[in-house]
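Hi support team,

I'm opening this ticket because the web form for multi-chain structure prediction keeps timing out on my end. I have pasted the exact lines I submitted so you can reproduce it. The total is 607 residues across two entries, so I didn't expect it to be a heavy job. Is there a limit I'm missing, or should I split the entries? Thanks in advance, R.K.
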Amino acid sequence: MTAIIGRDAPGQRSGGQGARVVPKSERPRRKLNLAGGIGHVFLAIWALMIIIPLLWVFLASFKNTTEIFSSPWTVPDHLRWENWGRAWTKAHVGTYVLNSVLVVTLATFGTMLLSSMAAYVLARYKFVGNRIIYFLFVAGIAFPPFLAVVPLFFQVKQLGLLNTYTGLIIVYIAYSLPFTIFFLTSFFRSLPNSVAEAATIDGASHTRLFFSVMLPMAKPGLISLTIFNLIGQWGQFLLPLVLMAGARDKWVLTQGIQEISTSAGYEADWAGLFAALTISILPMIVMYMIFQRQIQAGLTAGAVK
Amino acid sequence: MRHGRVPFILGFLVAPVTLYSYFVLWPYVQTINLSFYQWRGFTKKRWVGLENYDRMLHADRFWQALEHHAVILVLLPLATIAFALFFAFLLNVGGKGRGGKTAGVWGSSFYRVVFFLPQVLAVPVIGVLFATVYRPNESGLINGVLLKAGLDKPIGFLIEKNLALPALIAVLVWQAVGFYVVLFSAGMANIPAEIYEAAELDGASKVSLFFRVTLPLLWDTIQTAWVYLGILAFDAFAIVSVLAQDNGGPDGATTVLGLEIYNNMQQNRYGDAATYGVALCLLSLVFAAFTLRLTRRESYEY
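Hello R.K., no limit was hit. The queue was backed up. Here is the completed structure from your submission:
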């Protein structure tokens, strides 16, 4: 029994045991279904609570205002793509999405590059001040950007980087460093020494050792943290609100969507709002469907020891 | 290998350390300093000592915000952890048979995928989504259904003072549960199946399995969840800013410290904003110390 039961995925625990047991356990099995049935009701209700609002927004994005009010639960009588067009061009949701993609891609790349460099050195080299630098980085995990936002605004202003992509990207990187470095440091520490030693004997320099030996070995950790940062920075709200307020054409999705919501209220363009919402939600759902395993692993990486 | 060691270390550290010091560490230090000054941004800073703190402690909005953080701090982790534990248990152990099988209910992986989905959506997007869900007329999702079902007057989820904060917390729970289902599932997968089997042989019911086996063995993970949700409770800025009526309204019924910081900043009252920042910082530290004390409890080895 113990030999068969693995400790990997919860769903796979029973292994090949079933075939031998089934005939004997006809009656208990019915009991199981009953218990499972009640559980199913709760699980299904929660699943519906997530699916229904999203589906409802999606359907409404093809309706006109009359339809939205009179028949919220029906399928639209035809697909009004013009709602999407209006959201994309007039409400600029397209621009906001693209801005977000630009900022988050570059910021996550920068975060991963700088963090892995710092984490590697902190994890594998002994030098004076190593501990202090490490603890300063780790201390940053405990405090949200909120506490620093006023002086931060002036620091960025002083550099002339307010309302620029560069400014926002650099600040995203700076605030993503603590957690990423913390996580990657422990990852680099766990890598075996033997490979590094062999490469050194072969005459690899420090830099070469890092880029062609250690980074590839750290790939699983790097992937998790990349996903973690991509989603974290995609959802960032306060920093763009403070640092990008004056440049509407450079707004990211999170600040744009609020504006769209407000102005849709004034103009009573509910269909346009639903279309804008769909455009902001759909790409994330598609990405999630494709990479859901990696995304779940990446986002929970920080919490699972 | 000795060759080039120092330049290498310096070269790899200089960029991250500089960025971090300039944009993170220094602003933190500056916040404390700034909280003792009155400053409108352009004029010279004027030293006012504890005046900002005095004004903050006499501001209604400050105490309202504190009260809301307290409410969120209790409701958000309780509701999220309760739902997540329940679902995770069903998904992992709920469909357990008597034939020595330890398995989740049918369709576990589907539920897991759906539950986790809100995690990938940005909070402001979710806020706008729920603004349409909660809308107080027949075009709102909930009121649309209720009015069709015969309710005579729509519920003003975000308009009524007593409903607004719970409505916001519900959205946070809606988003968070899936994350903790996955987290707790990972924890439950680490509990050896033999323990469940032994308990089953001794005739334990599913309820006692949950309270006597799963819960104690998952204590560490639950503790982690509590800390994460607590940190979330001290933020809540994004959801309040997007979803609540007129800036933490109605009538301040949903304001949080983050929003007060932002509002003060918008009005160029930088000293006051920094003071609220220091208050938020102190509260976070108190929470951290408190949780560490409270949740220290022997963990079970297995």
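A quick check on our side: The CA atoms of residues 38 and 160 of chain A lie 60 Å apart. Let us know if the file doesn't open in your viewer.
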